[in-house]
Structures are given as structure tokens and as C-alpha cells.
Design brief:
Blueprint: E1 8-19, H1 44-47, H2 58-70, E2 74-75, E3 78-79, E4 82-85, E5 95-98, E6 105-106, E7 109-113, E8 119-131, E9 135-137, E10 146-148, E11 155-161, H3 168-184, E12 197-207, E13 217-222, H4 225-244, E14 252-257, E15 262-268, E16 278-279, E17 286-287, H5 290-298, H6 304-314, H7 319-327, H8 329-338, H9 345-363, H10 374-385, H11 391-404, H12 410-416, H13 425-438, H14 440-447, H15 454-464, H16 471-483
Parallel strand pairs: 13-14
Antiparallel strand pairs: 1-11, 1-12, 2-6, 3-17, 4-5, 4-16, 6-8, 7-8, 8-11, 9-10, 12-13, 14-15
The structure holds adenosine-5'-diphosphate and magnesium ion.
Length: 484
């Protein structure tokens, strides 16, 4: 059944602010640290006292270049900073140092999945450098707004997308991918609850197939991925309802209210400030040379898309497994290390995505706290592949025992606990004879066609061997025996 909502399509453009994990602030030597005692990381530079001079942070520039390279953006060679003037209590200088006409990166893309799982490139408009404002705290004191200026001057990159995102799910996937990238690059911790990654969503709707975008609203204050999605869903529906009632959409900034999943008007764009942008007079223009960009490129860590391709195309892993492996950088790097010591990629992937991940989940720990080294995991795989232990003995016995005594090698554990699998042909023949002797009638039934009984005999052989018979070998000999 089609509804009024099916007549419309949404147009979404996202602006993501990512706080850069530098030691000091964007234009001063003040510490960049979340959670310090309020107003302790604040010098006269951050406060913009007359006569003080900002200095740009080289590391912040390095981080922005990394993000640009990861998104295949064009890196701007000659750039300047711009002063954006406005008054706000948490902006002590009365202006923000940002970039206007020369953002450090232009163009580029972020690859996301559409609602039906296809790859889609979302074009970036630009990535620019700027500084954060302080924080106004409204809910700590019943009568006053408190101000913490520790955040003032923290370096940010703002990543602006073209209005190419079509659904709230795509927006969710986009923010997820940007977060994964900044984490792989180690430039931002991506924590939306603490505000180190923030997303503003620009949303408009138009009749399906139309070429003319509707008026947009910009929604702020979503502190999780899910809330970004919810805010956009609410906004799309709100706008369609209004249009259907014959009203027009007012271009405005709205705030998301997590308590009831709605958005409310904050300020209209008509009343927006004229920011009087002009080149920041206290900072020199900066040259980002080709050589510099090349040097950064050479030190780039592997990125999730690159690893995904390697795992599916070169290692023959399923897309599902490749996704699980690349979702989290530390898991991917662990897997990378396992594959330095074994060429059995399928098995390495199983060990990481199944055995190790379920162990981590069960203990609620991170892979950084996991006791076994990638080499030890590769050793277990080697023991299985050489037929010394079976897969089930490896995961049910050797693996847990190794976690208890990580200083011991896999082979040591297997030997000490008498777990080495029996692939001695004579011994296996003996076991088979014993097993079959136990069920003479069943053997007759098998011979007259009840082949399903093989499982019963196998079970008996494995039981007699206390789980140590090499199952492949045992089953092969067993069949030969019965066909005689
Ligand atoms: P502003 O400073 O007004 O927020 P920006 O250039 O920083 O402007 O950001 C504009 C954002 O809005 C971009 O992400 C862009 O893709 C998006 N956008 C522009 N027009 C529309 C529209 N009609 N519907 C939805 N998003 C839009
Ligand atoms: Mg904006």
C-alpha cells in the first residue's frame, strides 16, 4: 500500500565535526584533554587576550591531510585561516579561527552501503580545519549557566558532504564509515557520547524525481549514531506532513530532543549572523607541499576498504567475514599479524572472528587485553593443519588451556595434556576392530545397505580413542574396513 510519504524523496547532506587527538590545542600550547578539571587548560591565548598570538598546530594539519588522503580529496597547497566573527559566551575571543575559501581538502568521497547493500560513493564538498568553542553547561546549576573553556581551541576537522545521501539508513552508514576512518587513522576517538565526533544533518524533501531541492533544515545535537538516524527520520516525516498541509518549510536550525525523538526550532536562518569572514591576520599562510603530502601518504596505515578488498579478493574470504574483520581496527591489525605467520587465511579468519571474538565478548574485554599473541594463534592453526590436533580439540581444549598459561606454546600444551591426535594406522585399525566387534548385527545391517550406521561406528572409534583419533583418517579406514 502506498502512502503520501512514498511520493517524496529526501535529500540529506551531513556536516561532521571530529575533534583531533592532538596533545595541544589548535593554536596554543594548552593541553587538549577531555575530562580535565573545568577551566584548567586555558591560557591567555585561548582567551584571546589582547597582544597574544596564535600558533598553528602542525599535528592538526598532518591529521587533516591524512583524512583527506583517506577520502581521496585534493589537498590544498596554499591555504590560509579565516576569522569567523560572532559573539557567544563560550567563545571568549569573539571569533573562531577556521577556514573559508581555502579548506585544507576539497572533493573526495566516502564509500557507504545503500539500503539494499550496494556500494555508493558520497562526494565530499570539503574538509576544513577549525577550532572548537568552549562548553556552556545548563544543567549543573539550577540558576546559572556554567562555562568550561577547556574545549575552546581544541582542533577540529569539519567534513562536509554533498547533498547526495538519500535515506536515514544511508546517513547512519555514512557516519559509521567516517567514524571507522578517523579511528583507523588514529586522528579522533570517534566518541559521539563525549562529543568528540558530532554530526549536523541537513535535510530537505522533494517530490520523487524532482530536480529542484526543497528548503532544508539543519538538525543538531544528536549524541549517537542511532539518534542521527532517528532525527533524520523525524525530520523527513515532519517536512512531508507540513507540505501536504499546504505549508512551506522554513529554512532553520533545529535541535534534536532525544527524550521524545523529535526536533524543535532553535533559530531561523534568516536571522543568521553575518560572520564577516576575513583572512586571519595573526597566522601566516601555510604551504602544504607535494613532498609533505607524499611523505604522509607513505606513512598511511592500511584502511578498511583496502583490507576488505584484500581479504575478499586475495584471501578468498566471504564478504561477511571481511566485514567482521575490518569493522574494528584493532581486530583487523590482529588478524593481519596472524596472517604474517600462517597462509591458511580461512582458518585464521575463523579463529579471529569466531573463537577469539566470542571469548572477548564473553569476558567483555578488548583485543588489546587478550593474552595470546597472533603467532600463538598461527601455531594452533599449524598444529591442526599438520594433523597433530583436530579442530575441535584445538578450540575446546588447547585454546582455553593456552589462555590460562599463555607462556606455553601450543604444542607444549597439546603434548602435556595428551591431546596429540592419533594418526598411527595400526592403532586406528585396532580401534576399528574393537568398535565393530561391539555391534556385529549393525555391521550386517550396514553391509545390507543401511549406510547411515557409519556415524554410529565413527562415534565408537572416537570414543575408544578418547577423541584423539584423526577423524579424517579414521573415517576413511572405517569405510575401507566395512567394504571388505
Ligand atoms: P551552512 O554553513 O549553511 O551549514 P555548509 O556549506 O556548511 O552550509 O553546509 C551545507 C550542508 O547542507 C552540506 O552538507 C550540503 O550538502 C547540505 N545541503 C545543501 N542544500 C541542501 C538541501 N536542499 N537539502 C539537504 N541538504 C542540503
Ligand atoms: Mg552548517
Amino acid at each position: 500500500m502506498s502512502t503520501i510519504y512514498d511520493k517524496y524523496e529526501a535529500v540529506i547532506g551531513l556536516e561532521i565535526h571530529a575533534q583531533l587527538q592532538t596533545n595541544t590545542k589548535a593554536y596554543s600550547a594548552d593541553r587538549n584533554e577531555y575530562g580535565s578539571t573545568p577551566n584548567t587548560n586555558v591560557s591567555v591565548v585561548t582567551l584571546g587576550h589582547p597582544g597574544t598570538l596564535p600558533m598553528y598546530n602542525k599535528r592538526a594539519i598532518n591529521f587533516a591531510v591524512k583524512m583527506g588522503l583517506a577520502c581521496e580529496s585534493i589537498i590544498t597547497e596554499d591555504m590560509i585561516f579565516a576569522r569567523k566573527n560572532y559573539f557567544y559566551p563560550d567563545l571568549p575571543k569573539g571569533y573562531q579561527i577556521t577556514q573559508d575559501e581555502t579548506p585544507i581538502c576539497t572533493g573526495g568521497k566516502v564509500v557507504i552501503k545503500t539500503d539494499d547493500g550496494q556500494d555508493k560513493e558520497v562526494t565530499l564538498t570539503r574538509i576544513h580545519l577549525e577550532e572548537d568553542a568552549g562548553k556552556s553547561i545548563h544543567d549543573l546549576d539550577p540558576f546559572n549557566t556554567l562555562i568550561d573553556l577547556n574545549r575552546a581551541g581544541v582542533p577540529l576537522i569539519e567534513i562536509v558532504s554533498e547533498p547526495e545521501i538519500k535515506t536515514s539508513q544511508e546517513a547512519y552508514n555514512y557516519v559509521t564509515e567516517v567514524r571507522r576512518l578517523v579511528r583507523y587513522l588514529d586522528i579522533c576517538d570517534g566518541n559521539m557520547e563525549e562529543g568528540s565526533l558530532r554530526c549536523d544533518a541537513n535535510v530537505s524533501v522533494m517530490l520523487k524525481g524532482s530536480k529542484v531541492f526543497g528548503n532544508r533544515t539543519e538538525v543538531k545535537n544528536m549524541n549517537s549514531m542511532r539518534n542521527v538516524q532517528k532525527a533524520i527520520e523525524f525530520e523527513i516525516k515532519r517536512q512531508i506532513d507540513l507540505i501536504e498541509q499546504g505549508e512551506t518549510i522554513v529554512t532553520e536550525t533545529r535541535s534534536f530532543n532525544a527524550a521524545n525523538g523529535s526536533t524543535i526550532s532553535m533559530r531561523s536562518k534568516e536571522a543568521a549572523n553575518d560572520y564577516r569572514y576575513f583572512p586571519e591576520p595573526d597566522l601566516q599562510p601555510i604551504q602544504v607541499t607535494q613532498e609533505y603530502v607524499q611523505a604522509v601518504k607513505e606513512k598511511m596505515p592500511p584502511l578498511p576498504n583496502f583490507l576488505f578488498k584484500k581479504y575478499t579478493q586475495d584471501y578468498g574470504l566471504s564478504e561477511y567475514d571481511a566485514n567482521v574483520l575490518t569493522d574494528d581496527k584493532s581486530i583487523a591489525l590482529y588478524f593481519e599479524d596472524v596472517t604474517k605467520s600462517t597462509k591458511n587465511y580461512k582458518s585464521a579468519s575463523n579463529w579471529v572472528t569466531v573463537n577469539i571474538k566470542s571469548f572477548l565478548n564473553e569476558k567483555a574485554i578488548e583485543i588489546s587485553e587478550f593474552k595470546l599473541t597472533p603467532v600463538q594463534i598461527a601455531d594452533i592453526i599449524g598444529l591442526i593443519d599438520s594433523g597433530k590436533i583436530s579442530n575441535s580439540v584445538a578450540s575446546q581444549k588447547v585454546f582455553p588451556l593456552m589462555i590460562e598459561t599463555p607462556e606455553k606454546s601450543a604444542i607444549q600444551i597439546a603434548e602435556e595434556n595428551n591431546l596429540i591426535q592419533n594418526s598411527n594406522a595400526d592403532e586406528i585399525t585396532e580401534l576399528i576392530e574393537k568398535a565393530l566387534a561391539k555391534f556385529p548385527e549393525k555391521v550386517e545391517e550396514y553391509k545390507s545397505g543401511k549406510k547411515g550406521l557409519l556415524g554410529l561406528f565413527m562415534g565408537e572409534v572416537m570414543k575408544l580413542s578418547q577423541g584423539k583419533a584423526d577423524p579424517k583418517m579414521a573415517s576413511k579406514s572405517l569405510k575401507e574396513f566395512l567394504e571388505k
